[in-house]
Amino acid sequence: MNKLSMMVWILMVLAFAKAYPQQSPPEQTSFSLQEAINYGLENNYQAINAQRDIAKALKQKWETTATGLPQINGEVGYNYNIEVPLSPVPAQFFDPNAQPGEFAAVPFAPKQSANLTATLTQLIFDGSYIVALEASKTFLDFSKNADNKTKLEVRKGIINAYGGVLLTEENVAILSSNLSTIEENLRETTKIFENGLAEEEDVEQLKITRSQLANQLNSAQRQVAISRDMLKLALGIPLETTITLTDDLETLAKENMDMAMTQPELELEKNVDYQIAYNLTEQRRLEYKLERSKSLPSLGAFVNYGINSFGEDFVFLDANNAWFDQSTAGLSLTVPIFSSFGRKAAQDRTKIAWDQAETDLEQQVQQINLDYQRVSSNYQLAIDNYQTSKDNLALAERIENKNSIKFKEGLATSFDLRQAQLQLYSTQSEYLNSMYQVIAEKANLETVLNTPDFINIQD
């Protein structure tokens, strides 16, 4: 391979490497729940784009502001008359013997001309500009509130995903323990049956239970991988990355029990859905105000300065060529007079839209109050279910243990033992779900209350 081919090959490799960059692994792969929330708020895909929406709104606000500030435009012009236009003038100007009514064609334009002009314009008054400035601020507020809502939803999603991983892992651990216990019981019962001291039905009942537990364990193990991928997606981490969770389900459930959260009154103005609905109402109001402002006159001013030159030949780049100054200043007043009632129709349309937005806002208020009652009740219920499930689990374990002893001593049938085992497995599942529900319902309640107010935190 010669040097030229080698250089081309290297450039191609670099080009493809730039076109298809490799995503570097995240610096952090071990997370507590709070660390996962903090990481996800910075790296979640939706959170990133919500921040970009705010940046866009800031740019749009300045874009609107700039339209009322001085504007300078430059213009360069060049004309070449392929056929110089002729103008008719009375022939008597050039020939005293010419008859009245006779005309001569005279060129009054140069063959070539060039001009350079700079124009400064300034808006003095325009009602729609004033409304647009107010609307750009409202749009910025809307973008910030939308970002806040996105972060609340991202936070809730991370909490649910994190709890989901812990739930599936705890479920795998319990199913594995139950399966080991059943297999030990099956071995002992099989030996007893082979010695003629137990019925074949006892062995068959245990085999049924073992098969069901094995299937549940296989399904739960698959769910662990899926739940971990869901958490990675919520965090904005590549799915092939291995992560470690440092919190456990029971500790998180206890930390998230706060009965005081169901007591305070709902502060409606802090709810992000109310804030967004109010922003939309303000936007409709400003749209109506904008249409009304279009009936007002607008006033602008301008001043320009330029130079021009002309001649039969292209001599505009010559140092000795003559250029002539020109400058103009003026005002421009535009007064709307009659639009065939088009402006009136636009005003009526935007007023109707404003009325609709106010109705939507009232509906949103009622919906938020209903949501608060619902999630507050669900959170209270989740805490009660946790306490009940915990007590029931202790009872179910004792019942299963007693029936297991009775079965080994021949005082209980295999059916009795199976019923006690199924009750225990059901109670274990309810207990795990009760812990997860405490965490999830707490997140729902915090979302409605806007407890982690990200806008105020940023400000």
Beta-strand residue fraction? 5-15%
The DSSP helix count reads: 10
The description of the largest β-sheet is: 4 strands, antiparallel
Mean pLDDT figure: 87
Head-to-tail CA distance between termini? 61 Å
Shape, please? elongated
Strand order of the largest sheet: 2-5-7-8
> What share of residues is helical?
55-70%
- What is the chains' assembly state? single chain
Structural class: alpha+beta
Alpha carbon gyration radius = 40 Å
Q: Which stretches of 5+ consecutive residues score pLDDT under 50?
A: 1-23
DSSP E strands, number? 8
Q: Summarize the helix and strand pattern as letters.
A: HEHHEEEEHHEHHEEHHH
Q: Any overview of this molecule?
A:
With 459 residues, the chain is α+β, with helices and mostly antiparallel strands. Helices cover 63% and strands 14% of the residues. It has ten helices and eight strands. A four-stranded antiparallel beta sheet has the order 2-5-7-8, with no helix packed on it. A two-stranded parallel ribbon has the order 1-6. The protein is elongated, with a radius of gyration of 40 Å. The two termini are 61 Å apart. Mean pLDDT is 87; it is low at 1-23.
